[in-house]
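#struct-pred

JT: dropping the chains for the assembly here, can someone run the whole complex?
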Amino acid sequence: MRNKLATQSLFELSAAGRRATTFPESDVGAGPLDELLPAEQLAESPPPLPELSEPTVVRHFVNLSTLNMSVDTHFYPLGSCTMKYNPKRHERLARFGGIGDLHPYAHPEDSQGMLAVLYDLQEMLAEIAGLPAVSLHPAAGAQGELTALLVAAAWFRDRGEERTKVLFPSSAHGTNPASAALAGFKTVQLNKSAGGLVDFDELVSQVDDSTAVFMITNPNTLGIFEKEIVRISQLLHDHGALVYIDGANMNANVGITRPGDFGGDMMHYNVHKTFTGPHGAGGPGAGPIAVRDFLADYLPAPVVQKTGEGYELATPSRSIGRMRSFFGNVGILLRGYFYLRTLGASGLKDVAEQAVLNANYLKAKLADVLPVPDGEWCLHEFVASAKRVKDERGITAMDIAKRLLDYGFHAPTVYFPLVVPEAMMIEPTETESMETLDCFAKAIRTIVTEDPEFLHSAPHTTPISRPDEVAAGRNPVFRWTPACDS
Amino acid sequence: MAYLLNTEDQQQKMLESIGADSVADLFRGIPDAVRVEGLLRLPPALTEMELEAEVAERAAENVSAARVCFLGGGAYDHFVPAVVDEIAGRGEFYTAYTPYQPEASQGSLQAFFEYQTLICQLTGMEVANASLYEGGTAVSEAAFMAMRVTNRHTKVAVLGSVHPEYRQVLETYTGNLDCEVVTIPTPDGMCDLNRAAEALDERTACLIVQHPNFFGCLEDAAKLTQIAHEVGALSVVSFDPISLGVLKNPGSYGADIAVAEGQPLGIPMQYGGPYLGVLASKKDFVRKMPGRIVSEARDREGRACYVLGLQTREQHIRREKATSNICTNQGLLALRATVYLSLLGPQGLREAAELCCRKAHFAAEQLTSSDEFDLMFDRPFFKEFTLRCRGGAAAARDRARASGFDVGPELSRFSSMGSAFTDEALLVAVTEQRTREEIDELASVFNVP
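RK: done, full complex below.
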């Protein structure tokens, strides 16, 4: 029997009287607290947190960590997530004294090194976007979207234009419509697809003088470049609307093509995708935005500005305000900076090229078992369909995904985008070798020959298998209570 | 380049198997007219050694970090135990994705379930989500949540003693919506209960209180909660997690939504982020909550496990009708907070809170022995207080800087945010890390014997 003591919950591991962190005795006296604070504000006892010793805490969390798959331990070809290697040098540098321990309200004169780095990052991101004005402020991609939409709203308001609609294709990430609604816009989804691309005629029929912004991911979620993007942008601009580029798929573009050059007026980056901020099991991210010059005055505060002698924080003249407290998710932004300084222009272009080479190689290796309906060659990712194996053998995309875990691979994204039946969205990234891709392709080719019944109950070697999420949603439990013990 | 793996030979084989002549060929779907010609204008590539040398040089220019830190205003120099860095530094945690694939993510899922439980234990609330971006957006998300719960979408009220940046975020978030943000002035450093009652009406979704507030003072959060409830509004309380080592928790006085900046829970200051947005509420409101939530489940063999719960609230399923646009959250910071609270336990948290409180009071006493300072507000405070500086806050701050201390922020940096934000007002924060000696030395800068 496997010893599971360490992965019992913290609360079951607790025993009254155990301690880990202790603090020094007070060196400023230790009189009764109610001499300092009103008695009615004081709690009778501290919060009922678990009581644990340091070795218990360490063993608990280290054991929990072994229940995860991660980029450091596994190939993680999750489409649209860009799960590339996270360089270890970034982790060391982000902790340097003077960086990790710098207070956000440090006087600008006393934080010139930080401001210089952030200024340089703004400049690099402007160059990569082909858009001159950058805000590093947003906390993640979705907040970048919201920020840009509020910038657009403020710009239209200043021009006395009442524009109420935000358009996006059905293949858009859910954050696009969610951000548009939160920004106060009406959302209009385009439902047609022309070989995986935006249907230009449908777009024409929806764009009018009440259109504020068209949000588009390019390359799109199928990993295909919108070849009509210039015409699309022109159409929007002819109607006085703006084009927003969702930068989730920038890994295919970096050094190859720039949103500003193909018609985008605003975009966000996901530093945690394209520029190696580690995903952290859900976050943190950083979602800087880049915009055209005429929108620069509306960017949120603060931005970093160059002065005669150094750098300062500034508020743009027509700023929409703040989107969050303090400067931004600096720890993640710095990792992006370290990465770009390591790559340089040529290395950055290599990233896009090798990511695209890896994706096309894997696509070719799988073409006969998991065909890709749209497009000859893909960019950084492709969406294969398991429809044929489902029709012929009753094996679903979910079955393949779950069984891959048994073979030691993280599963691709499945059932997104909806335009492809039995979708498997695969993004290998540039930081994988041909050997790994061969091994992965072999695993899939084996899986599709396995007993379908066996696959329906996969995975078979993971700590758990196929939790019943529907039952969990019926009477959901979100916290441990002593009753859970039984 | 260190992060690429395929040799020239391999690349050639790969191209053959694809049926492409060259890598450039693969990009032919991108129109020539929008291609970058040549290379972008970026600084030259650096080796690891060169990069490290350059970053070290930049880091050394951030002289603030070398000073004794009495800076506050929402980010604090609390102690971070080594175990927190060690656990959060494990690649299995920090290089994993969002745990959508439960079989491959039980480690993170269990840690987040434990985080949610710890936040409930800390706050006395019934349910917590798995994190938001940071303390400021947590306030705005709480306001939107209150609008959904009360079905009142046109007005929220906020005390003027709430962090000015949190209030600015709320104004930006509601900027393009038909929602009025009413600010209740707090010129005396805390809220006058009558003024709060007058500002609220049947249209108000919530009253937002920060306790201890931005000036460091304690609010009467219990009475303010009652006042909100009298008109059917929710009480939203932004708290300092360390303060709950000694202060009554939001659940005990009936707060509906409790939010916080979780940075004090084992997260380095790193110039403002990434931090941790904490949000907890009554259980009845859980389906209106923003962000991810982990719930318990059973797998096909009946084994207890964890999954992401109630996903139908979220943007990837509900799209424009989602409870929030948040996708990426602050998972790794929630993990840090989980480890931190596990290490401190009830006694450790109480010790940390008591030390902050005692040292802050000692510092206030020492500093106000100088002719240059008195307390701006004669109110009870926890770990932070506002000085009135006769010679101006900026001058006082500069004198401290010149002697190796950082104090602040000076409140004039938020001068548009209320009458208390004067040129004379200076915030001073004192954590458990400050020693009597450091406090005495700071006071001596201002001629306190």
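JT: nice. Chain B touches chain A through 206 residues (CB under 8 Å). The first helix of chain B runs from residue 8 to 18.
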